[in-house]
């Protein structure tokens, strides 16, 4: 759950500036959104509970009621996203660098290198309301994310209870319930989820991105080494007539179009390689 919330924060933190950089979404994006939502909905299939696990589900629900009472998800989002958004809204991350680069005829890297102070002065001229615009976007995002959290929290709570029913025996669940009914147990249960939103914990996440970036070259090298013995993806010209016909049927695209499209892609790749891209 904690990783899911963090990913949500990183995803939605970029929304205010994207709202400035991009125009209105195309009218035909609803199908894409539905397809994406469906794909996410199928990412984590769960096995049905066994009769034994079903029998201890009520005990698991009682335990989860201690550690994840109503409103916990929303409180976590508030505690984690609030400070994050405050920090982002006051940073260069919310300056529409792409727009400024287009206006000035400069590279985005050149604009970014100007620094926050100078860019802030530029924005005061170009868009005096940009800070308020960011704040509005942030407010709307937080309000709507809060609504989402309220809507999905019951399902999450039920999933958590099912996980406890799978992972713990009845004796374990009974002991946990007794502990959570003690003063210290009750306090721990109430804080066990929220503590992951504590600034002391979140500040440790500052080390994650530098560590990941430092690791990337070695990771890419290892990938290349381990893939060295794998064959290259096949080209359309490598396919038999039967394979091409089956591919055409699967994709719903005429075989001739597949060959033509592949030829265009290969030509573009060759041109890019010749340009040193």
UniProtKB/TrEMBL annotation:
<feature type="signal peptide">
    <location>
        <begin position="1"/>
        <end position="19"/>
    </location>
</feature>
<keyword id="KW-0732">Signal</keyword>
<protein>
    <submittedName>
        <fullName>DUF2059 domain-containing protein</fullName>
    </submittedName>
</protein>
């Amino acid at each position: 759950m904690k990783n899911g919330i963090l990913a949500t924060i990183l995803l939605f933190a970029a929304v205010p500036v994207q709202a400035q950089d991009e125009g209105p979404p195309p009218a035909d994006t609803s199908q894409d959104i539905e397809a994406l939502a469906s794909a996410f909905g199928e990412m984590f299939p769960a096995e049905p509970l066994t009769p034994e696990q079903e029998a201890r589900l009520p005990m698991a629900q009682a335990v989860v009621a201690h550690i994840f009472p109503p409103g916990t998800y929303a409180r976590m989002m508030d505690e984690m996203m609030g400070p994050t958004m405050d920090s982002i809204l006051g940073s260069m991350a919310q300056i529409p660098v792409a727009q400024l680069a287009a206006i000035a005829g400069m590279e985005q890297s050149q604009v970014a290198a100007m620094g926050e102070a100078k860019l802030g002065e530029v924005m005061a001229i170009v868009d005096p309301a940009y800070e308020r615009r960011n704040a509005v976007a942030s407010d709307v995002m937080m309000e709507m994310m809060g609504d989402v959290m309220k809507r999905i929290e019951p399902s999450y709570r039920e999933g958590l209870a099912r996980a406890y029913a799978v992972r713990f025996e009845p004796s374990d669940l009974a002991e946990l319930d007794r502990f959570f009914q003690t003063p210290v147990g009750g306090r721990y249960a109430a804080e066990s989820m929220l503590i992951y939103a504590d600034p002391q914990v979140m500040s440790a996440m500052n080390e994650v991105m530098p560590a990941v970036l430092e690791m990337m070259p070695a990771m890419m090298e290892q990938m290349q080494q381990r893939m060295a013995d794998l064959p290259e993806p096949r080209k359309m010209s490598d396919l038999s007539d039967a394979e091409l016909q089956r591919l055409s049927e699967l994709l719903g695209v005429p075989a001739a179009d597949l060959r033509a499209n592949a030829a265009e892609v290969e030509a573009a790749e060759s041109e890019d390689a010749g340009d040193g891209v």
